[in-house]
Amino acid sequence: MMEIVYRAANNSDAEGLIDLVTKCYEDYEGCILDVDAEEPQLRYIASFFAEQNGEFWVAELNGKIIGSIGYTNTTDGFELKHLYVDADIRRQGLATNLCDLVESSASKMNIENIKLWTDTRFHEAHLLYEKRGFAGKTLTRVLHDLSNTTEYYYEKALPVS
Questions:
Q1: Percent of the chain's residues with pLDDT above 90
Q2: Which fold has domain 4-157?
Q3: Which end of the chain has the least Cβ crowding within 10 Å, N or C?
């Protein structure tokens, strides 16, 4: 039986996190990860999210990072970022559990909504977000990055107690 450990990320997770994101990008034609040029925060993920008033978690299996998620706390809610799950572990509830971490933090802080931007190529992620009650795909943005990324905007209103 798999024993997946969910924990707060450390800056020392950089290598494992970069390996995970690289592997995920390989599943999509044209996705290129240039950490230094476009995603330098992956090298100091815990510090970056702390500076953004957010949190970041990793999921580990046998010491290997197999999933990640984080949020930044913006003026109008949380922005979900960096949801990645190793392809070998997908469709086993890991992404759902990671999303639950963000939504639990939002609930504790009486946050009214969670928003996110996701690559238009990440169809499995879109299905997950929609299943979780996110509405989207009506607004897009073009990043002009190495991957020629176009992203969909998603948003979910949360019950506030």
A1: 68
A2: Aminopeptidase (3.40.630)
A3: N
Question: Which residues touch 79 (CB under 8 Å, ≥6 apart)?
Answer: 71, 72, 114, 115, 116
81-136 pLDDT, tens digit each: 999 998 888 887 899 999 999 999 999 999 999 999 998 999 889 999 999 999 98
Q: Which two tokens stand for residue 62?
A: 């046998």
Write b or e for each residue in 48-72: b if 16 or more Cβ atoms lie within 10 A of its Cβ, otherwise e.
Answer: bbeebebbbbbbbbeeebbbbbbbb
What order of strands is seen across the sheet that includes strand 4-8?
4-8, 55-61, 64-74, 77-85, 113-119, 150-157, 135-142
20-62 pLDDT per residue, tens: 999 998 888 888 888 998 999 999 999 999 999 999 999 999 9
85 with 24: CB under 8 angstroms? yes
* Token pair of 116 as six digits: 């996110």
The pTM for the full model equals 0.91
What are the C-alpha distances in Å from 37 to residues 34, 43, 149?
6, 12, 15
Task: Tell me 103's DSSP state.
Answer: H
